[in-house]
Amino acid sequence: MAARGKKLINDPNDVVTQFIEGLAETYPGLQYLDGFPEVKVVLRSDVAVGTYDKVAVICGGGSGHEPAHGGFVGQGMLTAAVSGDVFTSPPVNSILAAIRAVTGPKGCLLVVTNYTGDRLNFGLAAEEAKSEGYKVEMVIVGDDCALPPTQGIAGRRGLAGTILVNKVAGAAADACLPLEEVAEQARHAAKLVGTVGVALSVCTLPGQEISERLGPEQIELGLGIHGEPGIAVTEHQRVDVVVTHVLKQILSLETRYVPITRGDRVILLTNGLGATPIMELMIATRKAVRELQLEYGITTDRVYTGSFMTSLDMQGFSISIMKSDTIILQWLDASTKAPCWPAGTDGDRQKPAKVAVPAPPSCAIKSDKMLQQSRELTKEGCILEASIEAGAKGIIRIKDSLNEWDSKVGDGDCGTTMHRGAIAILDDMKKCYPMNDAAETVNEIGATVRRVMGGTTGILYDILCKAAYASLKGIKTVEAKHWANALQASICAISKYGGARVGYRTMLDALIPASEILRERLEAGDDPLDAFVVSSEAAMTGAESTRHMQAQAGRSSYIAADKLASAPDPGAMAAAAWYRAVALSLKSASCHSKP
């Protein structure tokens, strides 16, 4: 039986917030927004709300990659960094809080690593910020050179090259360039950098068991920074041999991921993945500099060695190579007070570490009358309440199974994420869901999952609820056909923003068959309850069929087909589980109500 990883932590649920508190105590130039646990934002202490006279540069993502990105907040680099839970994209509300806290009249640039959850959450936050009057640009960084060029809609992953892009963007902003030019400098830098990682061990998430995926004499090439399996597992070799392979992968003339050829000059970044001693990183750097010069005729203009973007306690390293030019060097050499960029730390703290979260422009507050009405449930309200409770408990029952499946095809936390959402729904439904209004209740469910789930799953379910709400809004008596239309609208919205279709190995492979059967049975005149039950069977069948699909979206798209066949898609199984539980609850309620 695998042992739990030993960590110097308190509660696994508090690791991110307590890291931020320690970071702000260590460096006088940093503060954090007083919005824990939902809002986890580090920002410069010298930037006041709404008054910053330069372009703000914001980056972020799931935690577990420290010092990225909070450690790179400071004059000349990031203006703010947004953290999600470990390996989970930050929610939209946190990103919006960061934008409101540091963005002035010059606007802000969002630098986003190329992961589905980050793209969705930062993208939606950008759109909402624009609607509030902010100027916002977004740059996606996908510097991974390990994977084949064709990977469905997911594309290349964002890795340690993002740190160099952030430095370029931050320096350009500090030089008072306008937003469009800062964004262009960042995009230019992103096109010039490539990265490949190597691991000697798999990372261990706080509170979880140690992975036994890699044997004691094995290393993994091309893995992701969330513990996703790499492109190859091989025997442990001398670091010089490994570095040679990494450079060959980055500079491949077949993929041409980076525009670097013989005679060019480059920037080299050797990045530790969390548990690699600086001695070993320096040895890798030594080999890389010599290999570039002797084998490729490439000179290194700048060399950075250290731990910049890690993967918790993973032992290993990544190498990033960026093509050098005069402008790139100007930005990289520009002064910065970001504490974890290779530079000193100075200055006394002039302001407190903690500051208030800026309030949104408007907040929808339920009146006491509305809450009172929601407690006096109609028959339909009682049925809706029972159905929501059944769906949530259906997810809670399969938490461990979801995590087990996700550990084989993703990052192992699908069950934990869905469980967190289900528990929050059960808690919120008794306090603030207006059950007599189906549309508003669905909207509130979306608000709940948006607040607590985060990542790709959270934003997709938020999108699902928002589309269903729009479909149901204004309907006094919601009937089966209206729920069928709402489900169809939700599927269309998820497909529009997430890019997935049927057969992509996602939650839609459960929901699309359910929707088709439901509409078909209702149009044929079947009893609505029977139609729901039959459609839930289609959802389960569709979810199980994902075992035989090649993923085209999300982190599973990086994993080989033979490994995917070992488990169904956990997102599809979760969707089928709550849908099935709701359908059976409706049927059961009907049976019990008969005399």
UniProtKB/TrEMBL annotation:
Domain of life per record: Eukaryota
A Pfam family annotated for this UniProt entry: Dak1
InterPro entries, sorted: DhaK_ATP, DhaK_dom, DhaL_dom, DhaL_dom_sf, Dihydroxyacetone_Kinase
Residue span, DhaL domain: 382-584
Residue numbers binding substrate: G62, S63, G64, H65, D118
Gene Ontology molecular-function annotations: ATP binding; kinase activity; phosphotransferase activity, alcohol group as acceptor
Sorted UniProt keywords: ATP-binding, Kinase, Nucleotide-binding, Transferase
Keyword presence, Cytoplasm: no
DhaK domain mapped to chain residues: 11-341
GO biological process, one term: carbohydrate metabolic process
Active site as annotated: H226 (tele-hemiaminal-histidine intermediate)
SMART domains found in the cross-reference section: Dak2
Similarity annotation: Belongs to the dihydroxyacetone kinase (DAK) family.
NCBIfam families xrefs: dak_ATP (TIGR02361), PRK14479.1 (NF011049)
UniProt name for this protein: 3,4-dihydroxy-2-butanone kinase
Lineage per the UniProt record: Eukaryota, Viridiplantae, Streptophyta, Embryophyta, Tracheophyta
